[in-house]
Amino acid sequence: MSITLTAAAADHVRKFLAKQGKGDALRLGVKTTGCSGYAYTVDVAERIEPGDKVYEDHGVKVVVDPKSLLYLAGMEIDYVKEGLNAEFKFNNPNVKNTCGCGESFSV
Fold first, then answer.
1. pTM flag (> 0.70)
2. Exposed e or buried b for every residue in 59-83, given b needs 16+ CB within 10 A?
3. What is the pLDDT along the chain (107 residues), one digit of tens a residue?
4. Based on the structure, what is the number of domains in the chain?
5. CATH of the domain at 58
């Protein structure tokens, strides 16, 4: 199962990477934290490590480490603006529960 981006998310990532001036891909992962167990991590992928999986959608590369891929396979990343706020929305079919604050999830 792949990881996909909406057109809005891809556009935002392209602008973000251009502003950073380093890396040509987005690194997506998970870390153990929060009341539900896991949280998403988003960063610039400055290099691709052995075992990393690389997806490309709308001309944007997304890099995921093997451990995180277990939790992220099949996910769609969107970027939404609501009033003055803008954020990534993770549509992850693997999530069973989220915490009340929306910062962490369990699978």
1. yes
2. ebbbbbbeebbebbeebbbbbeeee
3. 799 999 999 999 999 999 988 888 999 999 887 666 888 899 999 999 999 999 999 999 999 999 999 889 999 999 999 999 998 999 888 776 676 555 656 66
4. 1
5. 2.60.300.12
